[in-house]
Amino acid sequence: MAKEITTRQENYSQWYNDIVNKAELAESSAVRGCMVIKPYGYAIWEFMHDALDKMFKDTGHVNAYFPLFIPKSFFSKEASHVEGFAKECAVVTHYRLKKNPDGPGIVVDPEAKLEEELIVRPTSETIIWDTYRNWIKSYRDLPILCNQWANVVRWEMRTRLFLRTAEFLWQEGHTAHATREEAMAETERMIGVYADFAEKYMAVPVIRGIKSANERFAGAVETFCIEAMMQDGKALQAGTSHFLGQNFAKAFDVKYLNKENKLEYVWATSWGVSTRLMGALIMAHSDDNGLVLPPKVAPIEVVIVPIYKTDDQQQMVLDYCAQMKQRLETKGLRVKFDDRDTQKPGFKFAEWEMKGVPVRIAAGPRDVENQTVEIARRDTLTKQSISEAEMEDHIIGLLDEIQDSLFNRALEYRKANTHSVDTWDEFKQVIENGGFAYAHWDGTTDTELAIKEETKATLRCIPLDDDYEDGVDVFSGKPSKRRVIFAKAY
Hints:
By secondary structure, this protein is of the alpha+beta class. It has 3 domains: 2-73 and 124-285, BirA Bifunctional Protein, domain 2 (2-Layer Sandwich); 300-397, Rossmann fold (3-Layer(aba) Sandwich); 418-487, Translation Initiation Factor IF3, CATH 3.30.110.30. Helix content is 35%, strand content 28%. It is built from 14 helices and 27 strands. β1 (26-28) and β2 form a beta hairpin. The protein is globular and about 80 Å long.
């Protein structure tokens, strides 16, 4: 099975597609640009969903749901917002079909035209802020800390499973605050939540930063982001948190009566991550044998494969393995006992290796006799034999070790492929070879766009934890106060 995967070195893009397909994560659908998330892929997304949902609720947020359809007029109320999303919007114009009077088939009923066209949700700021106008009257109604789990539609012309599809799943937080300081603190807090999730659950190291004016969210005053490096040296934006200022409050006339009995506009944030995180998970850790999953988001942490030849051996080994499954589940582990008699052990090994299960246990008649088991770890493809009496503690410790090892391996890769550059030639070489160019930038959009035109590299972020440093822009030669991250990106 593993031989069916194109290697990363041979064709990284095809390698990614092969894993999505062979690990049974998703497939293209009959609808152009849309995907079917298969049960195993959706199970991974559910673990990510549940972990994030708990983190949101632990920080005081509650879930709500808002309409899929947004009146077209709402988008005209915030100029930069509509400009940013206009090219990606899917528009509903009619509400009924009828039989074709001129032949076979179905046609749109021209008499069923909507009075106002509806936009299929590309993001929900407009519909939510129209709603908040009814919810917010005084300072006593603030803050509002809402999150929505939903699907959105952005009519992408070039699509890739998980990374960029016309419809995708995500969460979007939308909060309302009495002061600028409170809203900014929320914006920064949520990018911290995303960073913690990426690193502690997905084992993906990220750089926290601020987007340039050219790259920030349409309608935002400031956009914070987390950027991750994939195994081909490209960047992937893994999450964003936006300080919206009072832009949407003014567009939808959302005011509150403050403690001094004066009307003020509300301050806002929005923030979100999507099924794009699945793409990050695949590309950050997987190898030429298939998917590699961190234990904390793996639907199956341990798979048990019995090995036997005769009927007498079969029952003995199956009983032995069933007892192991029960013991591991008692410890809270997610365990799959692959007792199918229609497939040979070698096929099962290859299948679960392809699907990235962190730990595999194999046991045969000799193991039953010696009270041992063979333990294989997916991240290093190494095996060892241990006593079944120490199995639970060993595997619990091994899962923690695998989680940490995947993070550290990804972090070392990023460090090795992040280069401080001071000349244009150095910059171009880093971008061409794949990696992050840590370079001085003069702060202008003109220079940023010129660099993108020359190299296809974009300014990924202005790192939050960096000190100011006088220097010279690698492209324009103008003075610069700090270095930023440039890279090619997904």
